[in-house]
Known about the structure:
CATH class: Mainly Beta
Strand order of the largest sheet: 2-3-4-5-6-7-8-11-12-13-14-15-16-17
Shape: globular
Radius of gyration: 20 Å
CATH architecture: Beta Barrel
Strand content: over 45%
Number of domains: 1
Number of helices: 3
Amino acid sequence: MLYAFSHAQQNDLSYSQYWINGLAINPAYSGSREVFNITMLYQKKWSGIEGAPTNMTFSAHAPLKNEKLALGLFIMNQSYGVSKNTQMYLNYAYRVQLGGGKLSLGLKAGVSMINEDLGSLLSGLVDQTDPVFTQVEEKRVQPGIGFGVYYYTPRFFVGASVPDMLNYGLNIIDSVSTKYEGSLSPSNYTYMLTAGVLIGKSASFKWKPSFLVSYRTDYDALRYDINSSFILLDNRFWIGVSYRSGGSYPNPVIVGNIELHINRQFMLGYAYDYSLGGLNSAMNGIHEIILRYEFGYKIEALNPRFF
């Protein structure tokens, strides 16, 4: 019997602009922009490799009339190889004033709809009756839940989360029988910690360092992202660089990012990941484009948010 758990919902996803795409890693981020926020992201990995992952995400979140409550929606479509994974999650956050900021407790619940066309691989096999490819479920719906904590002020933020608490593994019972089973065991979690701070008050220059640490227990893999962004030209132009190391990735990565804040509602961001390993010439890096649009900008203008 073969039995191994995998992060079916997450598939070791990483976002270079994690401070913008916050709902992807922490449900407690819901409502933290204090306006109705819509964010869309497109990520293309390793364009030099056939079947390389492509990720698209859509998120929307806002505080409710009762400002202690916030709701969010997160949708992701991921394709990699012969697999496609579409996720839909509802997010709920309960927020309280604490000191000079807000403490938010968040929950998310939803489903992953996975389609694996394993039959397309049979043509390359000697044994085209291999049950690993002919008997595995090709379409399945897997529920998922997650939890997070997020504290933020106009000058800094810190958050911790377990984005996927329900993980699934393929149990190959015998030569003709397989079954996916879920587990809530903490031994299969990915734990995430993120924080950032805004330094400086000048309209022409500010510095925003931040970091993300991710620990995946089943792989005993620790990954960290350290970012340094500079905010220029009356908050309209952001430029930064990140270093990513460890985890299940074989080589460290350097990331360059820019943000154009066209007005108080609309932001366009781009990031490029460059692997420091020998495979970069074949993989051609990772491209990530992100768009954010916010309603209620008149309120935001009185207290602009940098996280």
